[in-house]
Amino acid sequence: MSNLSWVRGINATIGWVAPQAVANQMRRQFMTPRELPPRDWELPLLAQAERITLRFGLSALRWGSGPTVLLMHGWEGRPTQFAELIKALVQAGYAVVALDAPAHGRSPGHEANVVVFARALLEAASELPPLQAVIGHSMGGASALLATQMGLRAEAVVSIAAPSRILTMLRLFARYMGLPAQARAHFVRLVEEKAGMPAGHLDVARYQLDFPGLIVHAADDPVVPYSEAQAIHEAWFDSRLLRLEQGGHQRVLSDPQLVQAVMQLLAAQRQASSSELAS
């Protein structure tokens, strides 16, 4: 029997007897990221970065100079996972600031969630020049969209492999871990209490998305279904949806089509800004 099968079996059994206890254990696991080291291909870009510390202790990496683009990685991710995109942005004359999310890398904290990610984006934006774009992957994409509802301003937003509804992801995780129905309900409630926001409110269908954007998602993503990207696109009038046939959940970040689409979006925004200034 695999370790995961054993854990599921224990959760299913104890979850009937002590649903709150199992739910609390799973809540801690869900919100506590592992620290995963960078891959070899990330190291050259990491060596070129300037490490900065923002006012509230958040750590970030910075490359280049020019209009600022802010990046947020996903759960258990790293700034340098955006390597191909960062190189293209710097070459095109942008300054790139990529956060270590709370409880990740050198940023403080032991637990995190999408609301904490979103607040980190707001804190970073308050110290940076006006943002040309905010780009987020997975939970970073979900947090970027949430942050816009909390006051974040940027000329454009890019969501990559992100969920449209956090409640969907909570339910998928609870079922995956073998929690019975009552324990699943407790798990969702505990996450909501920790995040300080009802999970039902973390749904792009409720958001006011009144800025240009790009949604990128691979059809073969095994973590966040492609249907989540379609839901975001339906809720976001001024957005383009780029479907990639392959790329999974992580490899999508290095896809040339993604890089090209982001650069096209930014170029269009700069051209629109120049036209407004000239008129």
From TrEMBL:
It holds the Pfam family Hydrolase_4. Residues 210-264 form the Peptidase S33 tripeptidyl aminopeptidase-like C-terminal domain. Residues 68-167 form the Serine aminopeptidase S33 domain. InterPro entries: AB_hydrolase_fold, Carboxylesterase_BioH, Hydrolase_4, Pept_S33_TAP-like_C. Transmembrane segments: none annotated. Keywords: Hydrolase. One of its GO terms (molecular function) is hydrolase activity. This is Alpha/beta fold hydrolase. It comes from Pseudomonas aestuarii.
